[in-house]
Amino acid sequence: MTTTSDRQITTVVSDFLDAQKDAIVAQWAGSSFFRSVAQDSDQAAGDSAEVLRGVRRAIAAGQADNPGADGFNDLRSLLTALASQLDGNEGVSARTAVEVSELKQPLLRLWQEQADAELLTPGAVMLVGAVDTLRLVLVESALAAARDTLAIQREQLSELSTPVIKLWDGVLAIPLIGTLDSMRSQVATESLLQAIMTQQAKVAILDITGVPTVDTMVAQHLLKTAMAARLMGAECVISGIRPQIANTMVQLGIDLGEVATRARLADALAYALHRLGLQVGSSPAGPDVR
Question: pTM to 2 decimals?
Fold first, then answer.
C-alpha cells in the first residue's frame, strides 16, 4: 500500500465519520458503556459525541493507532470520569474495556453500508484500530487516576500518623509510631516545623517510643529535624530511646551530638518545662507547675 493510498483511506474514513456522525452518536449513546454512566439520554449523547470527535481527530491526523495523539489526549479526562463511575472509583475493569470494544460494531456496520469495495477492508482495519486505541487510552487514564488517588491517600495517612501535640504553652510533641520511611519522615518534619512557627514553640519533643528500629537513615532524619527546629528558635528533645535502640545506635556509630535525649516522654516534658523556667512540684492538692 502506498503513502498516497494511506492518505486516501484516512480522508475517506474521516469524511465517513463526519457524514455518519448523528447515526454513530445515536447508536453509541445506547451502548452499555455510555448508558451505564449517563444520568439521561442527553448526557449519553453528549459523551458519545465528544468521544467520536476525538476519534475522528486522531484518524484525520493519521494517528488512529497512537494513544498519544491529540484526539485521544482530548478524551482522557472524560474517559477517566466515565471509567470511575462504572467501577465506583476503583479503576477500570475488564468489563469496561469489553464495553468499549462494543463500540466497533455500529461503526463497522455503517462502514460496510457506505464504503466502496476497494476501501472496505483497509477502512475497517483503521476503524477497529482506532477503537482499540481508545480502549488503551481508557485503561491508561483510569490507572493514572488510581495512582494519583493512592498517592493522595498515602500522604493523608502519613499526615494522620504524625500528629503534632501541644503538651504545654511553648512545648510540642510529635509521637512517631511504626516504621519511618522517607515520605513519613518528610511529613513529620514539615508538620513539626509548621507547628513550631504557628504556636511559637520553644521546645519540640520527638518521641520515638513507637519506632521499632532506628537505623542510619532514621537517625539522620532526627538530626536534620532538630537542626531545622533550632534554626527556627526551638530546641528539640528526642525521647523514647529504649535500651535496644540505644545499643543499636552505639553499634552503628550514630552520634546525636548536641541533641538532648531522654528515655521517657515524661522525662522529656520535665526537661522542656525546666528549659522554659518552670518547675514541677507537689502540693497537698496534687502536682503543681510554677
Answer: 0.57
